[in-house]
Amino acid sequence: FKAAVSISSISNLFSQWGCSALSSWVEVEIRGLPWEKLDLMIKQSPIMQAHKVRTPVLFIHGEKDHDTPIVEAEQMFAALKKYDVETVFVRYVEEGHGVRRKPANQLDVMRRLIAWFDGHI
């Protein structure tokens, strides 16, 4: 891929389980509790594959996201920076999951998406 965008992303199933309002989702996904399925939790956590990423990534996240806390995107952003992957992080202070609260922010997201892909494709 020439470019990617990650909005309200999950990067680490361990922190998603422990910090999210939707922690039961992880239990359903792995069919058990995290400490019972350690290998699967590690295998399915995207951050464990960060060393393979070369595609430039734009992260977009709302600071008030309780479904997928912003720390999820921050972790992957930090990991990709360690591997010198081109990456940008845009946070929206008053937004929750999906950046859907304020029309001005929705418009800003669309403009950033277009600019990101125009600059990479």
TrEMBL record:
Signal peptide annotation: none
Gene3D superfamilies, sorted: alpha/beta hydrolase (3.40.50.1820)
One Gene Ontology MF term: serine-type endopeptidase activity
InterPro entries in alphabetical order: AB_hydrolase_fold, Peptidase_S9_cat
Domain named Peptidase S9 prolyl oligopeptidase catalytic: residues: 1-120
Signal is among the record's keywords: no
Alphabetical UniProt keywords: Hydrolase
Keyword Hydrolase annotated: yes
One of the protein's GO biological processes: proteolysis
Pfam short name (any one): Peptidase_S9
Designated name of the protein: Peptidase S9 prolyl oligopeptidase catalytic domain-containing protein
Source organism: marine sediment metagenome
